[in-house]
Amino acid sequence: MVKITHISIDDPLYEQEKTLRTSILLEPIGFTFDDYLDMAPGREEKSEHYVAIVDHPTGTKVVGTATLYISENEDGQRIGKVQQVCVDPQRQGEGIGRRLMIAMEARGFGELALEQLYCHAQLNAMPFYERLGWSVDDEVFLEAGIEHKKMYIAAPKPIDQER
Ligand SMILES: CC(C)(COP(=O)(O)OP(=O)(O)OC[C@H]1O[C@@H](n2cnc3c(N)ncnc32)[C@H](O)[C@@H]1OP(=O)(O)O)[C@@H](O)C(=O)NCCC(=O)NCCS
Predict the structure, then answer these.
(1) For ligand 1, what atom is nearest to the CA of residue 148?
(2) What is residue 89's three-state secondary structure?
(3) C-alpha count within 13 angstroms, C-beta hemisphere, residue 33
(4) What does the alpha-carbon distance between residue 154 and residue 128 come to, in Å, rounded to a whole number?
(5) For residue 51, which of 25, 65, 105, 134 sits 20 to 30 Å off, Cα-Cα?
């Protein structure tokens, strides 16, 4: 059974989180984990860390990751940047990525009361976010030499404002 949980970087599972992110997201674009940290010093510590875990005879195994970084936009609204979303290739297509995103949306729009979540999506991952109801900007930009588009979702409106 896969469980989604929110960990601190002091958690023993953090090492596995880093290893999975490195092998799926960073090494393929020629980055080490330290290169990633250097792109935004301090952000890793300030982000919330989400992992998908399964029980394994050798101990708990991390099979998916995502991070959430909270900041303010130019209008002073609190927003969250979703980053480092990945799932172990052996477990892709099982709904684990979707569950990670739903966990972050629930926390972001629930307890944290954020106005918006956004991410910089690689073009080949865009359909994954679209399936979750995220919108996309037209502009294509390069990040780490790879084409990306900004994707975002706004906080759901309270029911009495929908009428
Ligand atoms: C993108 C990724 C996180 C998706 O995780 P996953 O667990 O395989 O996705 P899920 O099984 O939860 O899929 C949810 C839905 O998105 C769709 N989907 C997932 N990845 C997709 C892709 N690359 N292209 C098209 N559709 C995709 C699934 O078919 C599913 O659709 P459904 O609503 O019809 O069931 C995973 O494939 C991955 O780690 N890819 C490599 C790293 C990466 O690209 N990360 C994103 C960087 S921006």
Answers:
(1) 48
(2) helix
(3) 12
(4) 17
(5) 134
Give me the domain span that covers residue 88: 3-162
pTM of the complete model: 0.95
- Ligand 1 centroid to Cα of residue 19, in Å, is 20
Would you say the CB of residue 62 lies under 6 angstroms from ligand 1? no
pLDDT tens track of the chain, all 163 residues?
Answer: 999 999 999 999 999 999 999 999 999 999 999 999 999 999 999 999 999 999 999 999 999 999 999 999 999 999 999 999 999 999 999 999 999 999 999 999 999 999 999 999 999 999 999 999 999 999 999 998 999 999 999 999 877 766 5
Tell me how far apart the alpha carbons of residues 119 and 85 are, in angstroms, rounded to a whole number. Answer: 10
d(CA 122, CA 146): 7
Total structural domains in the chain?
1
